Amino acid sequence: MRVGMLTSGGDCQSLNATMRGVAKSLYHLLGDDVEIIGFIDGYKGLIYSDYKIMKPKDFSGILTLGGTILGTSRQPFKLMRVPDANGLDKVKAMKDNYRRLGLDCLVVLGGNGSQKTSNLLSEEGLNVIGLPKTIDNDLWGTDVTFGFQSAVNLATQTIDCIHTTAASHGRVFIVEVMGHKVGWLTLSAGMAGGADIILIPEIPYDINIVADAIKKREKEGKRFSIIAVAEGAISKEQAEMSKKDYRQYLATREYPSISYEIGAQIGKITGQEIRVAVPGHMQRGGGPCPYDRVLSSRLGAAAGQMIVDGEFGILVGMKNNKIVKVPLSDVAGKLKMVSPDDEIVKQAKLLGISFGDE
Ligand code: F6P
Asked: Which of 10, 221, 276, 321 is the 20 to 30 A CA-CA neighbour of 116?
């Protein structure tokens, strides 16, 4: 049996742990009867036939290693049907390479965009298995994605560090958390780090309500406030803009990111000293936390079993701590977002955390 493997899109901490899980289970089940081909830099390697024949030793010692031993790149789904600069039909090239290499299956470790492409390849007749990667936790069909918990740990550590300096100086601090268009990472890290205000894309904020929450804390004698802001957070006015107007606003915004805009506005309204901290790609760095190592190992092992059983066209996910097999066609194009009615949001509000909405 020949199995192709690739890591696609933004990296995260637990990609190697997941590939190791797939490989170990395949070697366990098939011994020498399986060969794994690793494509370099994601779909790019499959398109341009850049690959490496992997050996069992390649998967040793990588459980705790961050990044990806195969490399990754962003190959936008919307450009997959657009020929490259030399007129190459990318989808045809991927299919041709899959067939030429005699693959029985392709394992794609990727997030939303990558799984849209994996679904496309599955619809084109390839045997594909998806594994849910992303620090954003926004992949539909699974409770949790690998990489998320490791990123929560890092974003929380940032908030913890900011706490001590904010308390010493009596400042308002904004910590900007990644997460693309969803607020899972900010919500988790914000709660874990004891943020006073959490702003996420799914719950548009009113800047005056945010400022009121800070003033209230000041009146209560609190010297500092911490605001966890998702990189995709939006105000109520911005939420009402058309997509085109919002894009235009983003393109011409005078601040490097939403946190600086919020910081300037709050500074003006409250007169308080504001600082912004942006941990950025540190949130994707380093090795996987123990939770992710276990999650990745379980997802990888389950994928190995599915390959042997000939089950394809599926994303291997986790629901209620049990492996689920979700058709890629169900996953493609959907985002898993925080709902303002989710229990976790209600409980955060019970703790007195403001979301800037009411
Ligand atoms: O999807 C993971 C993610 O880290 C998002 O949270 C963030 O918006 C984006 O990738 C950053 O992308 P890049 O690494 O291409 O700058």
From this structure: 321
